[in-house]
Amino acid sequence: MIQSLGAWAPAGAAFGAGILAVVALALLWEWWAERRRGKDVVEQLRSFAAQSGTDRASETLMRSAKIVEARWIRPLAARVPHLRDLANTLAQAGVRWSPQTYLLITLGAAVVLGLGAFALLRLWVAALVAASGGACLPYLYLQWRKTRFIRAFEEQLPEAIDLLGRAIRAGHPLSAGLKMAAEEATEPIAGELRRVFEEQRFGIPFDDALMGLADRIDLVDVRILVTAIMVQREVGGNLAEVLDKIAHTVRARFTIRRQVRVYTAQGRFSGYVLAVLPIAVGCAIFLVNRQYILILIQDHLGRWLLLTGAVLQILGFIWIRRIVNIEI
């Protein structure tokens, strides 16, 4: 029994070393990419200074500032739709990763988890499943950070709309209202409104700046707000009244969503219990009778059963989450 437990120590050490190697490689890549981006910015500024009398130079500079992906990612992003919004997802998640670093971390996590699972279970199927799970871990982490960002933005959106409406009622133009709302609001919505104001101040058309906000923030309420402002700029009307109605609609949707979360709380709690219960019971039995649990690892059929149970647990948890996640 002690020999069986001792066999896990080298595997755990190799797994930890692999994770540290992936993190070190990602940091080294990010440092090199940051130096390269700094050199590119210096070259652009020198070119802009040399051509400082022309409007075309400033236009080229603003357009080149938007290009954040490497050239080799563009063909891949054209085939994989999720990579097209990777830069926005990284920005909303609040991480300082480049798309190249994200792909490197994804590949490293897949390789390390796949090799670790094969070293422990000696099953290629387990290695493939673990590699797939490792590749999904960075994506799930980004989605979790992005969800926090979207929820905070959505909670602050009605107040920001009210600030914008009050600024317009006071006689300020829409651009100045955005600046005032950005100064009074808190992050993350203050940064997004400030970005819209700065973009239109530096020469980008106001409609394009608003469309950029709708593209960066994946919220229906933001699209409604942008559409209302653009329509009002085309046909006219009382923008302050429209903003008040939008703020009321956002608050009403928020109230309904909280009621739905209360109604589905039992289903979410059941999903958490069903996901944690097998692991807790397995750990308890391992402490009471280790040899009883080690059969699942030492025997070939036990490994298959362990792998099948893990896959079914993950599928069941995802299925329950899909059932209780009701869109409003």
What does this structure look like?
With 328 residues, this protein is mostly helical. The protein has 15 helices and no strands. The longest helix has 46 residues, at 124-169. It is flat, with a radius of gyration of 26 Å. Residues 1-5 and 53-69 have low confidence and may be disordered.
Provide the descriptors you would attach to this structure in a database record.
328 residues; 84% helix; 0% strand; flat; disordered N terminus
SSE topology:
Layout: H1 2-6, H2 8-50, H3 55-65, H4 73-79, H5 86-93, H6 99-121, H7 124-169, H8 174-184, H9 189-201, H10 206-216, H11 220-235, H12 239-263, H13 265-288, H14 290-298, H15 300-324
Helix pairs in contact: 2-6, 5-7, 6-7, 7-8, 7-12, 8-9, 9-10, 10-11, 11-12, 13-14, 13-15, 14-15
Question: In brief, what are we looking at here?
Answer:
The chain has 328 residues and is mostly helical. It has helices spanning 2-6, 8-50, 55-65, 73-79, 86-93, 99-121, 124-169, 174-184, 189-201, 206-216, 220-235, 239-263, 265-288, 290-298, 300-324.
The geometry reads as flat
Oligomer: single chain
Q: Topology as H/E string? A: HHHHHHHHHHHHHHH
- The pLDDT mean sits at 76
Q: Whole-number radius of gyration?
A: 26 Å
